């Protein structure tokens, strides 16, 4: 008898939501999902999503890893999802508090969970994870960065000009949105789906969750957020990347319209021993893409972790 399809619109049985507190008292929403009782633990895996993401967007991905025996943990970054608090929507003055949150949460998680320990991070989460790997050296066994925002895809602006434009705009209109997003069904919403995922069903799941939880709708970034992102990306210097010493897999897509494919390729050449795979024709959210891409990405990630973070 076939198992019923996974319900992407419900927290699965056995997964528990809780709160983790940052050093300044900020409440970070997290999810912990242990493997099925009696099946043994493959290890512990923590997932960090991108800008505007929330735990529920990746429940299907968590189910894949949990089904392989991983104890899965995920969280919402400060200022988004269920960790929103009173921060201004879509705005950040600096990425440094997020780096500090992620590093401290990962350290606590490593101390409290069985190894091996693996980190998987997407988009902005991949950017923050790379900074954590370079600056904090967490005691992880392996890490996978999926479509990491190591630089913003600034097209049509030249890569060297874009940071100057964002910085100048932030001085004048730092807390104003850098662009507008239309309502569901509008041309801009359809365009957003195209550059995020080829799976209309998974895109619709995200909109459903936002309808159920309006606080999950972060909206476009401000000019100040963009300027902060460029400043943070500048910290990922060749010297910083060369100091990342754990096994690292970078997966991206050459058609990415949000993050820079060339920056991902550059980083893979600078991190010692890093592995790289680039899809020639896929959208940004590789783990929420149509099944041919999504399942291939999982197979590559699983094989990498089997090599570099084998079960103990």
Describe this structure in words.
The chain is an alpha/beta fold and 312 residues long. The chain has a single domain (16-308), classed as Rossmann fold (3-Layer(aba) Sandwich). Helix content is 38%, strand content 15%. It is built from 10 helices and 8 strands. The protein has helices spanning 59-67, 96-112, 124-135, 162-173, 187-196, 200-212, 223-233, 238-242, 261-270, 291-308; strands at residues 16-21, 27-33, 43-48, 70-75, 117-122, 142-146, 248-253, 275-279. It has an 8-stranded mixed β-sheet, sandwiched between helices. α1 links the parallel β3 (43-48) and β4 (70-75). α2 packs across α3 and α4 (162-173) packs across α7. The model has no long low-confidence stretch (mean pLDDT 94).
Q: Briefly, what is this?
A:
The protein is an alpha/beta fold and 312 residues long.
Stretches where pLDDT is under 50 for at least 5 consecutive residues are: none
> Strand percentage, roughly?
15-25%
Question: How many domains is the backbone divided into?
Answer: 1
Q: Indicate the mean pLDDT.
A: 94
* Helix-strand category: alpha/beta
The CATH homologous superfamily: Alpha/Beta hydrolase fold, catalytic domain
What is the gyration radius calculated from CA atoms?
18 Å
Mind telling me the CATH class? Alpha Beta
What is the global morphology?
globular
- The CATH topology assignment is Rossmann fold
Organism: Allosphingosinicella indica
Pfam families: Hydrolase_4
Protein name: Lysophospholipase
Domain Serine aminopeptidase S33: 41-291
